[in-house]
Write a structure and sequence with these properties.
CATH class: Alpha Beta
CATH architecture: Alpha-Beta Barrel
Number of helices: 8
Number of strands: 8
Order of helices and strands: EHEHEHEHEEHEHEHH
Number of domains: 1
Bound molecules: D-xylitol-5-phosphate, zinc ion
Largest sheet: 8 strands, parallel
Shape: globular
Amino acid sequence: MERADRIAPSILSADFARLGEEIAKIERADADLIHFDVMDGHFVPNISIGVPVLESLRKVTRLPLDAHLMIDNPEKYVEVFVKAGANSVSVHAEVCRDIPALARRLHDLGARASIGINPETDVDRVLPFAGHLDMILVMSVHPGFGGQEFIPEALGKLRAIRTELDRRGLKVDIEIDGGVKLANIAEVKAAGANVFVSGTGIFGEPDYTAVIREMRQRIALAEGQR
Ligand code: DX5
Ligand code: ZN
């Protein structure tokens, strides 16, 4: 059964020259998802990986692929990512013209629908549409690069979103992305996140199994304290 709290290593921080091995290693380390960061050099000031890489990964892993589209004009590309093997797709609220329509489209394609918000974007840009979504992604760094410092204001957003989802009785995942590591994962869990993206926090460590195991322990402890 799918866990309520899920660890999603971001392969942006993996060794791209040995990507297949890296995937096998995080699978053995008991990761729940593979977070796949797509950047277009317009929505964010960086360019990363795209459809051909996702397609190749689909062939070597059974883990769900969690595509995070940091791109302009996302409507144009969601279908090709789902067809390439993405199980969930996050599109940014800042560039999504019609969130309910986008969610419907993703569901029709057979994928989970998620909307992301940047650090400067208010939760009100996404909360009114929560009933259409499977997940809300809260950015805790300015998107574009791995290895940045966690922006603490994201904690307030997590609390606001979790409170509102609970109030409305909605089962929507809250994914936190950016600067999440062992040192702050308990705090992030206590604020309401349940899907934890971590790039350098996992790939920057020598033992992926140990760090993921320790992350789960800290999450469980924070759950007990809620
Ligand atoms: C940032 C990406 C993140 C990034 C996270 O634009 O969306 O997924 O890879 O990396 P860390 O965990 O190193 O901040
Ligand atoms: Zn991401």
